[in-house]
Batch of 4 targets.
Target 1
Amino acid sequence: MSIGVVAHRGSSAELPEHTLAAYERALLQGADALECDVRLTRDGHLVCVHDRRVDRTSTGHGVVSGMTLQRLAELDYGSWHDPFPETADALVAERDRGLPDPEEPAGVQRLLTLTLLLDLVTAHPGARLFVETKHPVRYGGLVEAKVLAELHRFGLARPADPVEATALVMSFSASAVWRVRRSAPKLPTVLLGRSAAALVVVPGSTAIGPKIDVIREDPDIVRRATAQGRDTYTWTVDSAEDVALCRELGVRWVATNHPLAVRGWLGPAG
């Protein structure tokens, strides 16, 4: 099975992470899947924000779980990010693929909700979405319940074939993974980990998600997962050397900030 390219928070090396523009760009660049982090607002809405606070990625300050959707929606999530690719090579590659030149942001980049991101994914047949629930959080398991409710609303929580599922749910919390598996047995899940030890016990997960550093230090972790009937998802893969290693070992999914470059390194066949 070929490696799937997952756009980590969208095409986040080029455009502001967790913005609709970053995800649209990733799909144009040939990403097979998108990855997002979700948190609950004070009034119970699922928003795509990685950090506990909005300070790094917006014009505001404060804790996501302590702010209402309306307050979060008033902020700009794009002005902090340089709109140009990191290298001239990346810019030329985009032009070769017929992608528009980057420009200074034409307007404010608004808050992205999980609902809007699911609208985007379901409008692109074959695209997938990896949803990471963040823990520890003040609302505990409510975040998984809300995510599953939203996936049910889109008809994605009970895939006929888990291998072809449009949505996958991930977490560093084994309890969160188990909650999802218990409520939606056919929905693929990924237990994330920053060390091999954190991935020894994988209750209910259909895949493990070690950081790429773990795979470099312990390549056999991929074989062990395969022997257990589990796929491997790894993050964050931004170099040709790491892509080659993942391909050699049989990693199923690689999350990257540079989906265009990774797609190029893998070639048309992936």
Target 2
Amino acid sequence: MNITLQALRALDHTDLALVQRIASLSKAGATVQLTPQAVRLQQANCPPELQRQIEEECYAAQIDIHCAPANRNLSDFKLVAMDMDSTLITIECIDEIADMQGLKAQVSEITEAAMRGELEFQESLTRRVALLKGLDASALQKVYDERLQLSLGAQAMLDAIQQAGMKTLLVSGGFTFFTDRMKTRLNLDYTHSNVLEIEDGKLTGKVVGGIVDADEKQRTVERVCAEMGISTSAAIVMGDGANDLKMMKIAGLSVAFRAKPVVRAQADVALNFVGLDGVLNLLR
């Protein structure tokens, strides 16, 4: 196995002491410095009990750790599929739109419950969108211009995977107003999300057509993989909420980014502290 440890900061003496302790516990054959922020222990033994122990220690030290077979490379994958809100970008767009109505706290509470898996996604989206009824559609552009930012490491990650010839899919329970703009801005290959209904320049409080929920996200990844002529095992899928779990489960590599506990527990990789480009250190 390879054990990769990485932090947002440069690893200091305290961090490296922890690395050496893990190297000893796992009987690692070699220690390789990947970057000032990342190190890999090669030819390591990482049984489940030890993995749980060192994951807890590393989480307390704000270090991300990943144990995986030693033969995985970026070239093993052909597609990266990403959730948008709180994954590729830092915000939940619907919460920021609601803020224009003075309803952010109310909408955010529903969003959080859905992301934790406590509320069915279709119901949560229908309730949240209904609260936006009557809002001037210009609020969408204002959110995009003033509040939408890429997540840490997103651009570096996209640059690397696109340079490697991989395709990209942005699949979101959010809205086409934002995914369409992200597709153009980031040169993404595929996008799929919900359509907000607008009449006379105002939001009606409804979504046009079917809702992109967990099942639809999974179907979208499967459909794009089929179009590409690849297995879903050749896809890396990134998400943060419970509605991402179904598409993450069919992936060759699932990545939980700043995710809810229920998602971290089920993902292959949990990036709790580093940026999205942290996935690259796992596949060098």
Target 3
Amino acid sequence: MTDLISSGEARLKAMAAPEGEIAAATHTLVVGPYLTRPAGGAPAPTRSAQARIEEAVGLAAAIELDVVEAIPVTLPRIRPSTYLGKGRVEEIAGIVRAREIGLVVMDCALSPVQQRNLEKEWGAKVIDRTGLILEIFGRRASTREGTLQVEHAHLAYQKSRLVRSWTHLERQRGGFGFLGGPGETQIEADRRMIQERMTRIERDLDAVTRTRGLHRQSRARVPYPIVALVGYTNAGKSTLFNALTKAQVVAQDMLFATLDPTARATKLPHGETVILSDTVGFISDLPTSLIAAFRATLEDVIEADILLHVRDVSHVDTEAQAEDVGTVLRELGIEDAQDRVIEVWNKADLLDADERTRLLNLSRKGGGQGSGTQRNDRDSAAPVLVSALTGEGLPALTSRIEARIARSRSTFAVVLPPEDGAALNWLYENAEVLDRRMEEGGTLHLAVRVAPEKEPRFLNRFGAARRLTRAE
């Protein structure tokens, strides 16, 4: 019995070995096989091959892989058996042997047959872009819902990829991922067991979704506007979230530093309370399975009153990234997002003086930078240039949020006698006090903005209030 306990403790210690140590010891080659002419009449890519391979290297770095070389490869067409042509396969095989590569990351979507054939040709583990993103999500998920969603997407991906060749890294553990070997449900390589596990996860996710629904109903009883941050991964959403809410959400210069959604209540300058929601970053060629899996996580985005589209305007591919964000929003079923989007041009601190001046002038004129957003009017649709890191432009951003919220709210003029402190307190608690002037005798003249759901109570209490503007 003692021997069994000791053996079990040793196995648990092995299971607890940091994945970062495995990744750091794995020499990785990143290959970017990019078609010179997209198949099926698809639109030509807006990014250069170099920019795309740099993003793939960034994805590998997000899980601490030791990338020793990155090779962009232009392809006239895709080969069904190995994706790459025979000559390229042989060339990369030589690099794998010479550099002692243990893992090859292909920045594309491979079929199971292509993946297995390349592993045989190169004698190394091969994963595609989908597998890499799944591994990153698996590392980042911290809530029960996020973990379940990632595992479900991973199992669906693995159903056709049950043969694993990296046996020297396999170890029994409860999670999943190519670095740690197959998870507990995959050791038997049994499709039926995987399906059973997926069914259980779906039931658990249904329960979690119901709980989130109850939370939303509870929040609806105290109806605050929802302001959701969306944007390409590493655009600075979490840094902006922290700056606006004084929270301490993880913010790193790393792709997919944020996965699980975070929401905080915060007050705007005129006293309006909003729910600010930080969400997972989007990325080009995001696997369809992950879009479906994380739909529940992105419910705050779908239901948001305002979307802050955070863009890294210092990035060379900022316009292409903006188009990718728009694509994902459409895939989430958010077709009417344009009238509730505020573009936030972030990382102004990384711009040189000339570029900063150019973008500031563009934002004041109400457009530019090719986001594809249909603009209804110049002021409300103009982008806001900010630096979430230094705080530059944040007052202008909060003013823009207030202005957007104001579209759906009426404003009133209220006159209060000096002794009616209770009424004044009610206005500060339930409305936005935009202006306050006191006459010589102490009489107060206020301009207030009232949410539609609170307007009946307001009018019942302040029947003599004079309407200044009507909600749209």
Target 4
Amino acid sequence: MKFGKVDNPEHIDFTIPADHPDTAVVLAHTQTKQPLKVYVGCAKWNRQDLKNFYPRGTKDELAYYSTQFNCIEMNATFYRIFPAEQYQKWYDKTPDNFRFFPKMTNEVSHLRRLNDAVYPTVDRYLEATSNLKDKLGTIFLQMHNNFGPKNWDRVVRFVEYWPKEFSLAVEFRHTDWFNEETVAQELFHLLEENGIANVLVDTAGRRDLMHMRLTNNEAFVRYVGANHPSDYDRIDQWVERLDDWKGKGLENIHFFVHQNLELESPLISARFIEKLNGKLETDLIIPKTLHKIDGKLF
């Protein structure tokens, strides 16, 4: 994942910013007194990307991956809408507690950029994706870097069209969505009123995307490590912040680990899950890897 990559990550201040003041308000108003649900995963299950993760002789990568992680951020669906039977195969290969968090096709987000022609594609995408049934998590819409606030009317129409039975999270990347206060507040309130998650992206070169503003009771976090020792300190900071949000009413954590070079994603995930289990009293499986952190084999 090259977005937000910098040549010298040691020069970046990775301190997690203070919460947006409205985050605590949102959590207080949206909590349902349900048990905390936590899903942690990578972006892909491809053996070539996740080196030193699959045991020798592994024949089915997804089947093995789903024994180690309880979810996947599905980048593959960004590039095409798969046939219905493919979603059924993925469903059948994974345990009952596994969840898929598929990315919306780029025809909607990047090629047509939420114009009026996207809606038949949205319908086709949802019809196919619904074959994941109870294993379908939040669908993830990622907009292009140059999709800015001048497209506000398109965003409003899309949000109003979106079927409420499908959970949605949106990642806006143009700097003006967050750097202009009036624009930011309008966007946050639109998402909040429609129960849509506001994606948080922790990456080196775009610290403005750490706006720390939740818009529903879902922390949808895309963590991008820099293949640098500071990655582990950053992960520890996230455990502390998520614990704080849990105390304020957070009930849904969806956390996806990326790397500029993906081979270390399972390693960082193992560290994160171990710390999360200890701090938040969760019981997630710690993925097995062939590396050591602080003297422990993962």
